[in-house]
Amino acid sequence: MLEHLGLIGVSWRQGGSAALAEFALDQESAPAQLREFAGTLELKELAYLSTCNRVELIFARTERTPREDLRPAAFELLTGRAAVNGEAERRLRAWHGEGAAEHLFLTAAGLDSACVGETEIVGQVRSAQERALELGLCGPSLGLVFEEALRIAARVRGETKLGEGRVSLAEIAVQLLRERIARTPGRIALLGVSPMTERAALSLAQAGLDFTVVNRSADKAAALAARFGSAHLSLDAFRREPPAVEALLAATGAEHAILDEAALERLAARTASGQPPLVIDMAVPADVEPEACAKVGIARVGMDEITRHAERNRAARLIEAGPAREQVDDALDHLQDRFTERYYGPLFGALQQRFRRTAQEGVKRLLKKELTGLGDAERKAIEVWSEVLARRFAHIPCLGLRGLLHDGPDGSIDAFLNGLEPEFAEELRAALNGASSPTES
Fold first, then answer.
1. Which of 40, 180, 313, 432 sits at a 20 to 30 Å CA gap from 239?
2. Domain 5-165 in CATH 3.30.460.30
3. Strand 93-96 vs strand 5-11: parallel, antiparallel, or unpaired?
């Protein structure tokens, strides 16, 4: 039922943030690249998920999609160059069928993050679906998978203890900021308007700490700052004449570093404490190059350090994740049921119609030739009885077909149809072709 689904990606486990940066698409060019990729490989459905922990492509194949491993093609899309000597297979992971759906469920629920139970990932998964919808690349298959992924994520957070405590990479960053401000009181700068900086802004505001929102678009910076009564600046203004800040958190979607050595020198010269500011860089690719910080003598904490901090608590949190994992397993069964009803509902309906029509034709002949002396009430009772019996008989093969769809080998439905009389088989195939089949959606 789910064999047409696929997922290819790379996470923090394969080489850290530097490796992720190589695979992240540029925000401006990504829409055109994704449309071209889907068209070339005959993928009618395709979504792109990019976070500080992972870069992934989720897709639904059609009958025209090449059957070979798609990792080399995905590697070229994401990096802009062709893979050599099996590089794509070594560096990219691939899941298909139920495994692809399961991986997305685990991701959305925060069970596959460096920080187990991570909260930002839900919004990022939702954004991936929304972008695919905007591109016209999210059809019924991915729609169902994303809907179920978001549903299970909400259920995990509502019914388990996985969401308790510090379960956000942004919260780890905020703790580092708070420790710095406790030593050298002063203002913090948040660079970028993203789920990370929004979460950080909320935590900083709740702690009563002063911060300035900085963004390439001044309007977006103003909108986020207004929610917390904070100051805001455009990125250009911040680079030219930065305010006095003791620390900054950067998490933009820029393709290249946004603060160069000269800008860092100006920041270091303006701190009220006289100490170099703390730079926390949660962007992939990096917003602030480590080499530039080292030259100026500024301490920089990147995603690799934050991830290692999160992983120190990973084993303990995985113990709490047992009930959440059970929820994911239940969700996979639920997804199978939903796919069955969406794609094969017309087949079941056609079976029921055939049984009803056969029963009605038989009753008409019976009443016309054998039971001609019956009154209207008796005739009506026989017609109702035949209708109920036809539905009960149709229920038996429908149950069997559902079992084949869930547990049978590939081609089970075709084998079933080939065993019927040709006219009946064509009638049922027409019902299937009138629906959105998994491979043509």
1. 180
2. yes
3. antiparallel
Q: Is 16 left (phi over 0), alpha (psi -120 to 50) or beta?
A: left
**Helix or strand (DSSP H, E) at 157:** helix 140-159
- What is the Cα–Cα distance from 252 to 191, expressed in whole angstroms? 7
Which H or E run includes 57? strand 54-60
AA identity, residue 384: V
| Residue pLDDT, tens place only, 129-175 | 999 999 999 988 899 999 999 988 888 777 666 655 555 788 889 98
Short-list 282, 413, 341, CA closest to 140? 341
Are the folds of 5-165 and 169-304 the same? no
Question: For the chain, first and last CA: distance in Å?
Answer: 13
Residues 303-361 pLDDT 10s: 888 877 776 655 555 665 666 777 777 877 778 777 766 766 677 777 788 888 888 88
Class of domain 169-304: alpha beta
Residue 436 confidence (pLDDT) above 50 = no
Question: How far is 258 from 344, CA to CA, in rounded Å?
Answer: 51
Over the stretch 3-55, which tens digit does the pLDDT of each residue have? 889 999 998 777 677 778 889 898 889 999 999 999 999 998 999 999 878 99
Query: What's the CA gap between 172 and 166, in Å, rounded?
Result: 7
User: Beta-carbon neighbour count of residue 300 at 10 Å?
Assistant: 22
Q: Tokens standing for 290?
A: 């480590």
User: Which tokens is 201 given?
Assistant: 């802004």
Rg of the chain (C-alpha set): 29
* DSSP structural state of residue 274: S
